[in-house]
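Memo to structure team: turn this sequence into structure tokens by end of day. - J.P.
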Amino acid sequence: MTAPPAPPALIPALPGSPELLRSVFRRHAAGVAVITAAREGVPVGFTATSLSSVAAEPPLLSFSVGTGSSSWPVIEETGHLGVHILGEHQSGLAGLFARSGADRFGPDTAWRTGPEGVPLLDGVLAWMVCRVVARVPAGAHVVVIAEVLAGNPEGDPAGAGRPLLYHQGRFNALRD
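Reply from structure team:
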């Protein structure tokens, strides 16, 4: 009989830090979403990679938003928002909604007003309109929990395709 192989040497743990968290999460592939809302008919939105399903009953999701974000003042007050799942063909849209100071709802962005006055982006893989049920402070961010009220899992006909991913600090497509 042969002895089982020796276990690999453990790599020492690094102390917790913002750098450690960012370094580890660069290795975690995340889906890319755009969150939208409006105040007095003026739309706002931002790219989020923190979107997560919370519960099926009731249908809840969560995402985080920085309190220094230009969208935060509207997200802080709104009762409803839109969640859009982006396709691999939409890295430009993801970049636009991620850039500070960008004209996110300018002439190059196709969108319409949806249920509850929520801005809905055209050409996405899927979208949902949600009611905000909680805002939980978390450092310089707030975790928003919202209940899904309506949506379309098929998105728009132009939105057929595969999801956009965020990995290693950039937008990526799935590989075959």
